[in-house]
């Protein structure tokens, strides 16, 4: 058994990195990243003196690896690369988490925390304090305006669904993913297209059926998030849990918005 | 899929996998068990995977926390286990009764 992570050899030297990059560049594009990770992981686990011998062995068998990779690629041409679906999952996680937190904070939290249903029931229509005007607007917009604006717009995105939700989920998700994961532009582009495709489908279905969005767009994206959380075992456990939580938090919306309590809450928000 | 040519390195890998069919192993680990030169096992693993004899999955780690890429874990499939038994038996019958594999 080879021990992973040999002590004192936690980083590849420049020459080893260059050799791995060169070997990987000679492989089919769809297979390159996977094999680069395999080689890099192995080299990191090997003592320094054994690394050259390893690279010589890898170079010697490169032609047969190329042939095998081509044969394998021919078998699963319709399968998406692992990295793309993982990137979609991360985009959905960042976008949905941000959107749903904004929505829950701006709409139901303030609606119930300030007892709006009770005030409306008591006929207190001329509220002394309208929660929609509380923080940060109570102290004037000032330096909080950009934060308030983005959060507010994101909450609207969840309520309106469709194209608004496309923007509020896809853009922050893509930005956060690009910053944190330093993904390749091509992979991120594919992930962006898939995410937007999800959002477009979620917009089109309610439009074609003549129904108002009613939280279905968010629920559609949430269902995709829950599915990815369940299936993408390559993602870290914490990411999968957060993705599932973000997804599940959307699934109640179509039911909630359809109730009289949910309808009243949205009516207050729209007002 | 054409019939796979059974070379000695491929048989060594199959034998190592068949010794504990349910266990997941990564490439370097498996190369050491099979007695192959490190770095030379991947063409065999990819060919076996394409033949449906192996399944693989990436390791569940956060690469930024761990500071290394994900490993890929390989497991023998049911078809692979059958193919391994047949290939090893065939080699034994063609080489006498010892069944030892060597370079």
Query: Taking Cα atoms only, what radius of gyration of chain B do you get, to the nearest Å?
Result: 15 Å
Mean pLDDT of chain A: 77
- Total beta strand runs of chain A: 0
CATH overall fold name of chain B:
Arc Repressor Mutant, subunit A
CATH class of chain B: Mainly Alpha
**What separation lies between the terminal Cα atoms of chain B?**
27 Å
The first-to-last residue Cα distance of chain A is 67 Å
Order of helices and strands of chain A: HHHHHHHHHHHHH
Helicity range of chain A: over 70%
Low-confidence parts of chain A: 1-8
* Rg of chain A, nearest Å: 25 Å
Question: If you had to describe this structure to a student in words, what would you say it looks like?
Answer:
The complex is a heterodimer of chains A (271) and B (103). Chain A has 271 residues and is an all-alpha fold. Chain A contains 13 helices and no strands. Chain A has 2 domains: 14-75; 82-270, no CATH class. Chain A is 75% helix and 0% strand. Chain A is elongated, with a radius of gyration of 25 Å. With 103 residues, chain B is mainly α. Chain B has one domain (8-95): Winged helix-like DNA-binding domain superfamily/Winged helix DNA-binding domain (Arc Repressor Mutant, subunit A, Orthogonal Bundle), CATH 1.10.10. Chain B is 50% helix and 12% strand. Chain B contains 5 helices and 3 strands; from the N terminus they run H-E-H-H-E-H-E-H. Chain B has helices at residues 8-19, 27-34, 42-50, 63-66, 78-95, and strands at residues 25-26, 54-58, 72-76. The longest helix of chain B has 18 residues, at 78-95. Chain B is elongated and about 50 Å long.
